Sequence to fold (334 residues):
Amino acid sequence: MRIAGCNPVYKKLISVTLLLSLLLLGTMVLGLTIGSSGDIGAAWRLLLGWGEADATLEVIVWQLRGPRVILAATVGAALSLGGLVFQALLRNPLAEPYILGISGGSAVGAILGILAGFSLFPGLALSSFVGSLAVLSLVLLLSGRKESNSDSLLLGGVMVNAFCGAIIMFLISVSKTAQMQKIIFWLMGDLSSVGVDNLALLLGVLPCFLLIFLLAQPLNLLLTGRESASAMGVNVAAVTFVLLLTASLMVSLTVCFSGLIGFVGLTIPHVLRLVLGSDHRILIPASVLTGASYLILCDLLARSLPSQGEMSVGIVTALVGAPLFICLLWRGRR
Fold:
């Protein structure tokens, strides 16, 4: 695509954004029209406004599939962008939203909310927030009060995440049978619990997307090294703290809706960096759009595969993401 009078970076940004937006639109349409119930052709006619609409199909498309597609897109975008931010800050391609223990803390808070009988909003969302923020504060405290060190952040995150995992196993072991089944399914990743009335809470991730995009250039400078970035006028400690806090809040908000979904924040940023380069002005919107499309497709696959009941989307992302990342590691090693 040729865009006259634009900086080459903005030409690439506009081209990539338009292309990936079309991809996201296509996957959303697939998510709305394909499912275990209802005719695909009738769903297409409903979306296009052709003919007389079936009341049952309208409920399926707009009240069941619609919120689920929006949730999958939001969760995929948040996890992918969170992985991109953590990989850049820690300068480690293996980093992801869970590496600092954010997922573990959010899961502990959410499970405590489930055991207490809280509703999704505000009880469960608030308990998930508190758990993630408590873990982030602990990890930052362990890594030092001043500039966060990558090695200490990684080590602290791994240790805190392991401790949170032990707490989760303890809570599962003392819970009732019905609660235990709900918690285990939630831990594997579940996108079926959202409704139309809960979607407004997901708007909280949009300011996080915008703030991270506004910090794209400082994030680029951080890749050159902390000393170099500081010499070029970047307040390294402040930018690092704001990005860590924003990414953690963004991820914890989606985790309380979807449970633990792995490998999205690990593979999507890695693939995009190989394809598009390392400029975060392009990688940030690309991660949002690609992560959203990817999780919609994974959820569609989870809903379509034959199984007793409904397969967890977290199983699909692990089955797809783990071999893909092994291939990327092997390719990088060669």
